[in-house]
């Protein structure tokens, strides 16, 4: 049983969204760390993640949500990473980035309301944030997330993976079946390509907030 869990958040949000999952795992006796990624560049976020992993006393399960899946795919080659868990996340292959994975959405697929970049940073349209990113959260919580967005750097979206960790390490993937940011068929396709153990749960892109028990359950599987 692996006792260390490391959480990596995605774009537009910070690590505080992991609190409910954190609390469930801590109650089970896990040592849980949450990476606060600057989301300025993939290289910077990988370095920040490695800094957290370096501070652990043994192997860990590395968990990523959304863009955090790109980070863990690159950072997960660290020797202290024993397993990967993708939560409604991008799971890129070598040479892929968020940009390449979202470049050609299938007809009819929901398109996230990303505003044009300003000074190298992206935000989601505040008025459309809830419907796209947090459709199953209380309205006041979704509104707060829209108002507290973290700027997402273009270098983070364009950062390409050099050697995806899922090619060498076991992975698990939680598909959020109501996701309107990463379409569920795309989630399934990436999970299958990675050879991940796949679970499904109803949930928006913010499934780590709305379904913390399902998220924690899959992490426990990976840890065992």
From TrEMBL:
Keyword Hydrolase applies:
yes
Keyword check for Hydrolase: yes
Q: Which InterPro entries match?
A: AB_hydrolase_1 (IPR000073), AB_hydrolase_fold (IPR029058), Sec-Metab_Biosynth_Hydrolase (IPR052897)
A GO molecular function assigned to this protein is:
hydrolase activity
Q: Which Pfam families match?
A: Abhydrolase_6 (PF12697)
Q: Which organism is it from?
A: Acrocarpospora corrugata
Every AB hydrolase-1 domain range: 5-217
Q: What is this protein called?
A: Alpha/beta hydrolase
Q: Cite the entry's keywords alphabetically.
A: Hydrolase
Q: Which domain of life is it from?
A: Bacteria
């Amino acid at each position: 049983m692996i006792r260390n869990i490391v959480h990596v958040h995605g774009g537009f949000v910070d690590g505080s969204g992991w609190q409910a999952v954190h609390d469930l795992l801590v109650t089970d006796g896990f040592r849980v760390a949450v990476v606060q990624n600057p989301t300025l560049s993939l290289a910077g976020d990988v370095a920040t993640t490695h800094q957290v992993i370096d501070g652990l006393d043994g192997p860990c399960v590395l968990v990523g949500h959304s863009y955090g899946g790109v980070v863990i795919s690159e950072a997960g080659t660290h020797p202290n990473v024993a397993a990967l868990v993708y939560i409604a996340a991008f799971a890129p292959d070598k040479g892929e980035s968020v940009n390449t994975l979202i470049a050609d959405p299938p007809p009819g697929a929901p398109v996230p309301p990303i505003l044009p970049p300003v000074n190298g940073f992206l935000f989601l349209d505040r008025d459309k944030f809830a419907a796209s990113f947090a459709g199953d959260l209380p309205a006041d919580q979704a509104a707060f997330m829209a108002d507290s967005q973290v700027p997402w750097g273009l270098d983070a979206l364009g950062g390409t993976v050099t050697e995806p960790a899922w090619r060498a390490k076991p992975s698990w993937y939680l598909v959020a079946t109501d996701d309107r940011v990463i379409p569920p068929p795309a989630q399934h396709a990436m999970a299958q390509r990675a050879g991940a153990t796949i679970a499904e749960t109803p949930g928006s892109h913010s499934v780590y907030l709305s379904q913390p028990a399902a998220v924690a359950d899959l992490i426990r599987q990976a840890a065992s």
